[in-house]
Design goal:
Helix content is 41%, strand content 23%. The chain is an alpha+beta fold.
Length: 220
């Protein structure tokens, strides 16, 4: 079995995550929707339930990197001096592990490389996406963000549409895409008028054809 094949095996059904939870001590933290969470030094965090976003800065309203169920958050051995703040967009459950204890366990079990590989893959994906967003206009950022949310979180319905996560709304979308409320609302109305987006009783649905119109950004 090659290294990449082994990583796919570990990622399937979250085998590595389950093994860690069964063998390493952790503390469970509950975070309510809209509640902020200051990332603790010397910790590695697993999202057990829900979705959180990292704030661009401690005082910024804009949301950057998202982490959801089965994602690990690891800021490295040297914790930055400035606070790293996350905000829950839905009720979330987080497992906090002591960094030294978890790293020692993974090293002993010869799984540290696999763990860091998974962390590195997500980090690279997140940073590539943020770098790509920085090259786009406000309108393009909104469309790109919607597309990414649909690919990552969307649930395909029987009629072929994709239902976006229940926590999405105009304000959240504007914060993720780093756009003002006015521009975001305008672009949403355009998508609705063009029959691409449907909002019904707070449910956001996007049509399948959006996938064909945004293949150039499918890797983000």
């Amino acid at each position: 079995m090659t290294f990449l094949e082994f990583q796919k095996y570990l990622a399937a059904d979250h085998i590595l995550n389950d093994y860690i939870k069964q063998n390493v001590n952790f503390s469970e933290i509950q975070i309510e929707k809209k509640e902020k969470y200051s990332f603790p030094p010397n910790k590695i965090v697993l999202i057990e339930k829900g979705t959180v976003f990292q704030l661009a800065t401690e005082e910024s309203p804009f949301l950057t990197r998202d982490s959801s169920i089965n994602d690990f958050i690891y800021m490295g051995q040297k914790h930055p001096t400035s606070k790293i703040i996350f905000e829950a967009v839905e009720k979330s459950s987080l497992f906090e592990f002591e960094t030294e204890e978890l790293i020692a366990f993974l090293d002993k079990e010869k799984l540290l490389t696999s763990f860091l590989y998974q962390i590195g893959m997500k980090t690279t994906e997140d940073l590539n996406h943020l770098a790509f967003l920085a090259t786009l206009s406000a309108k393009e950022r909104i469309n790109c963000t919607l597309f990414r949310l649909m690919v990552k979180y969307g649930k395909k319905q029987e009629n072929g549409t994709f239902r976006l996560p229940s926590w999405i709304n105009v304000k959240i979308l504007s914060r993720i895409s780093n756009c003002g409320i006015v521009n975001t609302s305008r672009e949403i109305n355009t998508l609705i008028d063009n029959g691409i987006l449907f909002i019904y009783e707070k449910k956001w649905l996007m049509i399948d054809s959006v996938l064909n119109n945004h293949q150039s950004i499918s890797s983000y």
